[in-house]
TrEMBL record:
Reactions mediated catalytically: a UDP-3-O-[(3R)-3-hydroxyacyl]-alpha-D-glucosamine + a (3R)-hydroxyacyl-[ACP] = a UDP-2-N,3-O-bis[(3R)-3-hydroxyacyl]-alpha-D-glucosamine + holo-[ACP] + H(+)
Record has DNA-binding as a keyword: no
Chain ranges of the UDP-3-O-[3-hydroxymyristoyl] glucosamine N-acyltransferase non-repeat region domain: 22-88
Pathway connected to this protein: Bacterial outer membrane biogenesis; LPS lipid A biosynthesis
The EC number(s) this enzyme carries: 2.3.1.191
Keywords on record: Acyltransferase, Lipid A biosynthesis, Lipid biosynthesis, Lipid metabolism, Repeat, Transferase
UniProt family annotation: Belongs to the transferase hexapeptide repeat family. LpxD subfamily.
Pfam families: LpxD
Protein name per Swiss-Prot or TrEMBL: UDP-3-O-acylglucosamine N-acyltransferase
Tagged with keyword Kinase: no
């Protein structure tokens, strides 16, 4: 893939400074870029590289233009510009090509649009509906009565259980499981009794789901993911969770059952959310946080213990073992201050 700098400027709506005929073939960072590359500057700490870069062009803000020694595209947000250029120059191969592979197994009553692509060993069960432009990679399973919206793409070995609906232009990475049973059991005198999970999964438009993530089906009602949500690798989203528009969830996050997450939230990696709580719109939860109660006000929320030298951590851990004793002693001292005769 290659484009001229003038073509890129037009696609991005950027202000061009330099030669519009320069050919751009790839993206690179400022430090290692060579001729034919376009780079970007989004942080002041990389400004020194801006004056030394060998990139053919740089995406930057107007304030950084005087420091640039090469061609430039000026935008309000260079990082968004980088994302757009990456899409234009994307070299990622297609998940599957060439229509329906001979090894694919499709139920007679499944509904497939004329231009659906199914890779090798795909299984599509009865009642499934695959809309125009759907691409299903090798080894995927599409369960009974599930639906894939227009332009949705699945990489290899994705499992879509029964009654799971994905909207338009979704992207699901390899190994993900959508619609497995939620963790629902009753206990009768020590014996676990399984509760059939009768709900489905409803996923909106333009949702991206990382590799090996699991989104469980609802116990009675559906598990629901709104439009424009992005979910990283290795996340666990339990039954009847609801995630609002534009929320981003980083890797290895675990969300217990019946959690309601609002719009435009950001949840850092390896966070854990307790079941049956709600998170308001525009809440940011930093990595490795343990959220035990509902959050009702937008803001940044954190918990956890940052890494520190082992000797220091061992000393702190030893002191934590005596917190109850210290609390009792402090309470006695407070009472003595109020009433000196108390012992």
């Amino acid at each position: 893939m290659s484009m001229t700098l003038g073509e890129l400027a037009q696609q991005l709506g950027a202000e061009l400074h330099g030669d519009p005929q320069v050919v751009i073939q790839r993206i690179a960072n400022l430090e290692t870029a060579q001729e034919g590359s376009i780079s970007f500057l989004t942080s002041a700490k990389y400004r020194d590289f801006l004056q030394q870069t060998k990139a053919s062009a740089v995406l930057l803000k107007a304030a950084d233009l005087p420091l640039c020694q090469t061609n430039a595209l000026v935008l309000a947000d260079p990082y968004v510009g980088f994302a757009r250029v990456a899409q234009l120059l994307d070299t990622t191969p297609a998940q599957a090509t060439g229509g329906i592979h001979p090894s694919a197994q499709v139920a007679p009553d499944a509904q497939l649009a004329a231009n659906v692509v199914l890779g090798a060993n795909v299984v599509v069960e009865s009642g499934a509906v695959l809309a125009e432009g759907v691409v299903v990679g090798p080894g995927c399973f599409i369960g009974r009565d599930s639906r894939l919206g227009k332009g949705t793409r699945l990489w290899a070995n994705v499992t879509v259980y029964h009654d799971v609906w994905l909207g338009e232009a979704c992207l699901v990475q390899s190994g993900t499981v959508l619609g497995a049973d939620g963790f629902g059991y009753a206990n009768e005198r020590g014996e676990w009794i399984k509760i059939p999970q009768l709900g489905g999964v409803r996923i909106g438009n333009r949702v991206e789901i990382g590799a090996n993530t699991c989104i469980d089906r609802g116990a009675i009602d559906h598990t629901c993911i709104a439009d424009n949500v992005i979910i990283d690798n290795l996340c666990q989203i339990a039954h009847n969770v609801e995630i609002g528009y534009g929320t981003a969830i980083a890797g290895s996050t675990t969300i217990a059952g019946s959690v309601e997450i609002g719009k435009y939230c950001i949840i850092g990696g390896a966070s854990v959310l307790n079941g049956h709580i709600s998170i308001c719109d525009q809440a940011t939860i930093t990595g490795m946080a343990m959220v035990m109660r509902s959050i009702s006000e937008p803001g940044i929320y954190s918990s956890g213990v940052p890494a520190q030298p082992n000797k220091q951590w061992r000393k702190m851990a030893a002191r934590l073992l005596h917190v109850e004793d210290l609390h009792a002693r402090l309470s006695r001292l407070e009472k003595q201050l109020v009433d000196p005769e108390q012992k």
